[in-house]
Write a sequence for this structure.
């Protein structure tokens, strides 16, 4: 398997894992009983760990380089959340 194929597989796994995290999160939020909530919550934690592992591997390979948000956007968000308090 060449590097391009590996990258495509990792991108697919990352995308699908993010979608699964979203489903687990909504399941946790909408759970009607503590047992069901705990099951979804554990699934969410496991899925978030998997997502982090895939992201770390992709970043290590240079396929998903982290980027710094522009300072003006950071300042706008700070201001927004400060005003909400």
């Amino acid at each position: 398997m060449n590097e391009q194929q590996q990258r495509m597989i990792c991108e697919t796994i990352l995308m699908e894992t993010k979608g699964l995290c979203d489903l687990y999160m909504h399941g946790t939020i909408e759970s009607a009983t503590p047992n069901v909530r705990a099951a979804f919550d554990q699934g969410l934690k496991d899925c978030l760990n998997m997502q982090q592992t895939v992201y770390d591997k992709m970043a290590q390979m240079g396929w998903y380089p982290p980027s710094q948000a522009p300072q003006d956007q950071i300042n706008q968000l700070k201001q927004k959340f400060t005003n909400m308090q």
In short: The two ends are 52 Å apart (CA to CA).
